[in-house]
Each structure stands twice: as C-alpha cells, then as structure tokens.
Amino acid sequence: MTNLHIKNGRVIDPANGVDAVQDLFIADGKVAALGSAPAGFTAARTIDATGLVVAPGLVDLSARLREPGYEYKATLESEMQAAVQGGVTSLVCPPDTDPVLDEPGLVEMLKHRARGLNQAKVHPLGALTMGLKGQALTEMAELTEAGCIGFSHAEVPIQDTTVLLRALQYAKTFGYTVWLRPQDAHIGKGGVAHSGPLASRLGLSGVPVMAETIALHTIFELLRATGAKVHLCRISSAAGLELVRAAKAEGLAVTCDVGAHHVHLTDADINFFDPNAHLTPPLRSQRDREAIRAALTDGTIDAICSDHTPVDDDEKLLPFAEASPGATGLELLLSLALKWAEDLGGDALFKALNRVTAAPARVAGLDAGHLAVGGSADVVLFDPAARWLVEAPALASQGKHTPFLGYEMLGQVRATIVAGHVAFERDAA
C-alpha cells in the first residue's frame, strides 16, 4: 500500500468534531496522523488539496447494485465505479436481487465479487423471509456470519403481522437490526404517485400518506412488545416524521433515513409525466418536503441515502404509470447533501456531511464515516465550489435515469480513497 500525504485541505470529520485546514497522513491503508507527520513517515505520494474539502468517505444506506440477477440493468463493475466517482466508500445493498439474498452462499459470493474490484466496501442486508415471500424466516445467524449487517424486506410489505412479530422477536434475541420501509400492504397498492390534487389532475393512481403512517403505527406497536431495533427506510411524509419523532422521544430503538431525491423534489416535479420522477416511495407534497428538511435539521432523520436504483431504458422510457420506479443516485448523493446545506444557509457543511458519513455509519453499525487515527483510510476529496451538469454520458452508473438530468450540481469529487488505495481520481480540468 502507498503512503499518502494529503496537504493543505480543509479536513471535516463530523464524527470527531474536526473542521480545520490541516494535513492528513495515510500509511498501510489506515489514517496515520492528522496535522503533523508521524515519526519515520515517508510519503510515496503527496496530494495537494488546497481549496478542497477532505472528508470521510460517504456511507450510503441504500444502493441497489443489481447483482445477482439484474445485470441487464447494472453490473457490479459499473455501480462500484459510480460509487467511488460519487465519493461513496461504504454502501449497504438491499436483498431484492434474483435470487434473493436469503442464503449465506449468495451473500459470500456478492462480497467476494465486490472485494475483487477493490473499490467501495459492500455491506449486504439479508432477506428477512425466504424469497421475500413473507412466510418462513431466514437463517439470520448464518446470514450474519456470511457478512449481512441487518435484515430487510426491501420494497415488499409483510402482509402477515405475526411473521413480522416473530422476525422482530428473533432479531431482538440476537441483537440484529431489522430494516423496514413502512408501507401498508394494501392501501396504495399499485399506486404510482402521491395521493393529492396533482395525481388526480394527471389521472395517476395514488399512494396516500396513510399507507406510511398505518405501517409505522404497526411497527411501533411491535417494537413496544419486542424491544427490537428497527431502521426505517425512506420516510417520505410529514405525518410519518411526527410519528418517528414521538417514537424516538418515547425511547424506542428507532433510526430512519430519507432518500436524497425527497429532500429537494415534490410531486410537482413529475411535470408532464416524467418517468424519471417515478420513485418509491413517491415524491410527496411541498409540506412533506419542508417537514423532511426540518427533521434533517433537528436530527429526527438520521441519514440521507442515495436510494440508488438503476433502471434500464426498456423499463424507464415508458408512460409514467408503466415505467419502473427508481433513479440513479450514487454520484449525486454528495451534491444533493451540499445543496441542502447551501439552502440552510450559514456554514451547514459540517451538518450535511454528518448526515452522509458518521450518522449512516452509526445506523448501520459500521466502523466507517470517520478519520480517526488507526481507522481505515476511507477518504473523499471534493471541491465544494465546483459546479457540474448532470448528463447521462457523465454518469458511471449503467442506470442513466434521474429526475436531476439537466440540473447544475454543487460540489465535485476530485479523488476517492478506499483503505489507502486511490480508487478514483478526476483529471484536472
């Protein structure tokens, strides 16, 4: 491994309360020192980070890599490149692959493939039930040994509440975290847009907010009974956030995240049936978006994730209601977090970086998202003032569809370092 000296950068490490212009020294894949070089250190390479922010590599709580089974939508190679191009060094992938990640061998194969690429670190979620069918529980202990950091049912609601109760009881016994996207199995089923005046005018079937809140009420009742730990994925509504805020105040073991798209967009951004804005959960009202921003500020929402879901042209370039939901997000996560900081005003950069580094690492139980001496040297260098245009050819992801196509973004990654290895470096303009 190469010893690196990153000089003159503004080091921001929310996990350790660091925000200062200082040098960073990397040796043997780990952070060797901040400020002054450790004794006997000799740099094989020096990177001048003048004018750049040096931060922990981003931790993304939801990135679909589409392998195994959906290689026509994306490959591990393309999505790992997208991750490091976006400054993401650790990512969590849901289990809704084909076959589903419900057996240890599949998990081990995915992790082995990812390690071989020597780019971002992949942390799979195991399926909560076999085949995500909502019936028989998976062998959670074996999946954990294979490398799963938690258990999820992806976008498939569990219809039998008894099954969910048993899953939470089992998870509590062994200290596992269950990741759930609150969505009622019946209300809003088949809906493609937020239930409201806009969906009515456009003739689109709706997903009401109560589909989220009813599911949350159920989850919280089960948590009171079991004491299990749950991470709520992609909260999308003001009413849902009020329930989460109350649950946290009550002391329930709950964390939650929001998709980066929902921090900025509303159902109005569907415009004239733009399929790129067909997402799950759907983009909601302006009131919901403002509630999301407030909840990010006060800490009710723990983390921002990319909700990276690459979709191929054949499934996306269709009428809105027929198009597959999802958008590429790995390469946009940093810029969308910085845009939120810019909208907050003042120096909110520290808070924004916390939501995509230390906070998601804490949620996922990962030793990541920090620049502590002795920790893995997962680092991103970015120019906070640079602006770039979101264009399909510029995206490394095989999925080129995003509602932000044509938007000018703030902040550009210059280099991404994973375990001391320079995994991505952008040529100077």
Describe the structure.
The chain is α/β, with parallel strands linked by helices and 429 residues long. Strands 1, 2, 3, 4, 5, 17, 18 and 19 form an 8-stranded mixed beta sheet that branches. Strands 9-10-11-14-15-16 form a 6-stranded parallel beta sheet, with helices on both faces. The protein has a 3-stranded parallel beta sheet with strand order 6-7-8, with helices on both faces. The two termini are 28 Å apart. The chain is built from 13 helices and 19 strands. Helices cover 30% and strands 23% of the residues. The chain is globular.
Features:
429 residues, alpha/beta, eight-stranded mixed sheet, six-stranded parallel sheet, 13 helices, 19 strands
Average pLDDT, all residues: 97
The main sheet comes to: 8 strands, mixed
β-strand percent reads 15-25%
Cα Rg: 21 Å
- How would the global form be characterised? globular
Q: How far do the termini sit from each other?
A: 28 Å
SSE-based structural type: alpha/beta
Q: Count the helices. How many? A: 13
Helix/strand layout:
Elements: E1 4-13, E2 18-27, E3 30-34, E4 45-48, E5 53-56, E6 58-60, H1 76-85, E7 88-93, H2 104-117, E8 121-124, E9 126-127, H3 140-146, E10 151-152, H4 161-174, E11 177-180, E12 193-194, H5 197-202, E13 206-207, H6 210-226, E14 229-232, H7 238-250, E15 254-259, H8 260-264, H9 286-298, E16 303-305, H10 313-316, H11 333-344, H12 349-356, H13 358-364, E17 379-389, E18 408-418, E19 421-425
Helix pairs in contact: 2-3, 4-6, 6-7, 7-9, 11-12, 12-13
